Amino acid sequence: MTPDFVIKDPRSRVELRLRGDASSQERLAFLNDASTRIGSTLDLTQTCREVVDVAVPRIADASGIMVQERLITEGEFPGHPTDSAALVRRPATAVAVDNPWDWATAFPAGEVTVYPPYLPQAQAMATAKTVRIPYIDQTIADDNARAFGRPIIARLLLGGSFLITPLIARGNVLGYLVLVRQPCSEPFQEPDAALAEELAARTSICIDNARLYHRERRTALALQSSLLPARLHHPPGLEIAHRYLPAGDLAGVGGDWYDVIPLPGDRCALVVGDVMGHGISAAATMGQLRTATQTLAILDLDPGELLFHLDNVARRLNPDQIATCAYVTYDPATGAVAMASAGHVPPLLVPPGGEATPLPVVPGPPLGVGGERLETCTATLPPGGMLALYTDGLVETRDRTVDEGIATLCSLLSGPPRALERVCDTIAEVRRQADERDDMALLLARAVERAT
């Protein structure tokens, strides 16, 4: 059974059911309670689950919610304000009945379907008006069963009562809330319809908010993904591996990027950066800075000089956004490494089979802040040694400091040599388990053992 099929004790109906003659204060108290429980997150499925959880058993024995599939998958309103032939999905169902497994079979959570126009569900979608059926006769029950090829539907609905209320936001029908009472319960009355419409109105606002949130997040992720390199340059003398994990929510989707840029004389530059801020604007700025870095790299500047010029570019692009960046050059002929940091976490050096340690880079101001020339530091990458560049989303969490995170990353990188892809997988899995709300970029480069 999925978590989106909610089962409640049918005996709770006696104690909790809002009676047909309930006072206006009782109905208002129910709606106030619903407002505090619905929309606790910006997850659309969770919102739908909260709605049916509120409705059952307070006003119905069973409840399901249907949302237009396009709204769920694309975050877009349908092409027409009302549409009885729209493809809809049932994100959640709740029941307080003696035979819950029969209801799960008849009305499975997650089902995607189209309701025939002769059914009351489709009529609510077509008219944007509540449909109340005090008594479900044999014809209505059989029509529902026939439409989905499940005879059990007729048996469950016959003799009960229907209340189908459209979910409307910005003049568009997003779907509908369906409430069912069994023959043993009092049929739906006009006051129940008014109450359901209030509940649906509040639900529609939450669903629309979730739609907008997920649409912006999908857009930011799509933009960010399109601006990251599909295939990195593999320079002579280095093995390269990389990972990028997006944030778990929009508040963390920013502008992490990484790159490997060829330089004259078989040398290369390794770059990792992070635009501060979130959403589409940060992702767009990231793309501009990545392009600017590639352009400046053609000039073959030393790392500190390059980041100085990149800072000037950043201030012209968007003075309201700043970024951090680590820029490292490597010469396979000598193993020489030169690096500079604009407010970025330090690269790590892992000697062959040894322990990872942060490189002694002197961090300057972030891009977009400075105007200062940054110091270029040097080191040597021995054959078989590895460099690790990363963003702070990998090491800084709500529960640990950056220094603690770097120490943890060093422990994951240390030890006997392993395939770079395997190392990346291990680090990415640790990051996934932490469920952090920030992007993460990781770039590993290992010096190939030179033949003797």
Automatic annotation (TrEMBL):
Q: Where is the PPM-type phosphatase domain?
A: 235-447
Q: Which UniProt keywords apply?
A: Hydrolase
Instruction: Please state every residue range assigned to the domain named GAF.
Output: 33-217
Q: What's the Enzyme Commission number for this chain?
A: 3.1.3.16
SUPFAM superfamilies assigned:
GAF domain-like (SSF55781), PP2C-like (SSF81606)
Q: Which GO terms describe its molecular function?
A: protein serine/threonine phosphatase activity
InterPro entries, per the entry: Bact_Sigma-Reg, GAF, GAF-like_dom_sf, PPM-type-like_dom_sf, PPM-type_phosphatase-like_dom
Write down the PANTHER family for this protein, in alphabetical order: STAGE II SPORULATION PROTEIN E (PTHR43156:SF2), STAGE II SPORULATION PROTEIN E-RELATED (PTHR43156)
Q: What is the protein name for this chain?
A: PP2C family protein-serine/threonine phosphatase
